[in-house]
């Protein structure tokens, strides 16, 4: 059961949708144009229900099968937002928005799920209900979390959820997946070190925040090397070190550190968070300074459920011939909020030899779309076979 013929027929149309979205990228929750297009198309396809405004600019479409003896409800999720990147890719449908680009292929994700929606609305060859989820703000904004907080799962009684991401480096249209922890938790944090500024010639009259913050930066590396078990995965990176004074002869009063923390289990994440507080606050105290630690916008670990992953891989094999075992990635994925609430599986679809996602020369491979659309459709038809 290879790629569905209907998607080969629909490909020019689905490509045109994507190229239009690509020319008009929108960032985080500002997916107003994109959301309006998704809404309009879902209505035109004849979805039984189309709801907007979940997670601010999220859109949900509901398609009922020919029958509903199973009582099953499956959620299929795509993301819609772009990145604040100036496009360098040489494509005829280049971004028209200066400093914004679909550099993660979410234009492709949205178009593939729309393609599946069109097919499923036409055929309805299943026994149950499909909930199509189009979320904004995957790239660090927590759009998936906000849709869940707005009652996404409860409102339609979603029982399991599926997601998909294109993957440069994997042959176009091939699939890869893994069970268990797949994408890392991703937390941003700020540490504000407060000491006592003063004349650089009289350090004995100050509490030198540059020295204190430097000790904290180095000491934080012991979370990975001394606190977390070597077989558990953790990344703690300080990405910004900003002093309150830029002068040559002033010891700054304040140093602002920024960074990100990634882990592959909630236990490791909690341990690392605790140690980060202890190390920053304790080190500062040892020098008579203070450190104020603030964690923000965290994504939990994205865990694929065993049963749904096995099923997703079986479906991928039926579409593409086989399905590879994916490696874990320390990247974060907002789908984690949905798969935390319901059993689910997240799969990678190959994007060939393109530049990596988040690179200004990245290009989504349209030839991956028939496979991606077919996977969505087969998930529905094989999970809820027509009665
Ligand atoms: Zn991304
Ligand atoms: Zn992405």
UniProtKB/TrEMBL annotation:
Domain Peptidase M20 dimerisation: 188-285
Sorted UniProt keywords: Hydrolase, Manganese, Metal-binding
InterPro entries found in the cross-reference section: Amidohydrolase, Bact_exopeptidase_dim_dom, Peptidase_M20, Peptidase_M20_dimer
Superkingdom of the organism of origin: Bacteria
A GO BP annotation: diaminopimelate biosynthetic process
TM stretches of this protein: none
Coiled-coil segments on the chain, per record: none
Binding site for Mn(2+): 104, 106, 139, 165, 358
Descriptive protein name: Hippurate hydrolase
Biological source species: Yoonia litorea
């Amino acid at each position: 059961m290879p790629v569905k013929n209907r998607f080969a027929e629909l490909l020019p149309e689905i490509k045109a949708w994507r190229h239009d979205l690509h020319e008009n990228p929108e960032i985080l929750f500002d997916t107003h144009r994109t959301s309006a297009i998704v809404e309009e198309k879902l209505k035109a396809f004849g979805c039984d229900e189309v709801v907007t405004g979940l997670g601010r600019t999220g859109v949900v479409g509901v398609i009922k099968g020919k029958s509903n003896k199973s009582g099953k409800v499956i959620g299929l999720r795509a993301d819609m937002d772009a990145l604040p990147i100036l496009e360098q890719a040489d494509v005829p449908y280049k971004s028209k928005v200066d400093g914004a680009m679909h550099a993660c292929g979410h234009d492709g994700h949205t178009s593939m799920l729309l393609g599946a929606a069109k097919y499923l609305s036409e055929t309805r060859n299943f026994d149950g209900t499909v909930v199509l989820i189009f979320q904004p703000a995957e790239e660090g904004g927590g759009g998936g979390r906000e849709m869940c907080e707005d009652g996404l799962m409860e409102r339609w009684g979603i029982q399991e959820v599926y997601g998909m991401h294109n993957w440069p480096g994997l042959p176009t249209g091939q699939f890869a997946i893994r069970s268990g922890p797949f994408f890392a938790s991703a937390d941003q944090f700020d540490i504000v070190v407060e000491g006592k500024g003063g004349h650089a010639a009289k350090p004995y009259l100050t509490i030198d925040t540059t020295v204190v913050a430097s000790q904290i930066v180095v000491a934080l590396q012991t979370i990975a090397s001394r606190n977390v078990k070597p077989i558990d995965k953790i990344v703690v990176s300080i990405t910004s070190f900003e002093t309150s004074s830029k002068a040559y002869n002033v010891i700054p009063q304040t140093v602002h550190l920024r960074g990100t923390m990634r882990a592959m289990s909630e236990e490791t994440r909690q341990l690392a968070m605790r140690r980060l507080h202890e190390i920053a606050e304790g080190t500062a105290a040892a020098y008579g300074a203070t450190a104020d630690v603030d964690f923000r916008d965290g994504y939990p670990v994205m865990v694929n459920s065993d049963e749904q992953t096995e099923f997703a891989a079986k479906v991928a094999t039926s579409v593409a011939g086989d399905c590879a075992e994916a490696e874990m990635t320390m990247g974060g994925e907002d789908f984690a909020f949905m798969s935390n609430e319901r059993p689910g599986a997240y799969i990678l679809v190959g994007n060939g030899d393109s530049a990596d996602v988040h690179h200004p020369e990245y290009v989504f491979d349209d030839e991956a779309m028939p496979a991606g659309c077919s996977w969505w459709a087969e998930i529905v038809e094989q999970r809820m076979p027509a009665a």
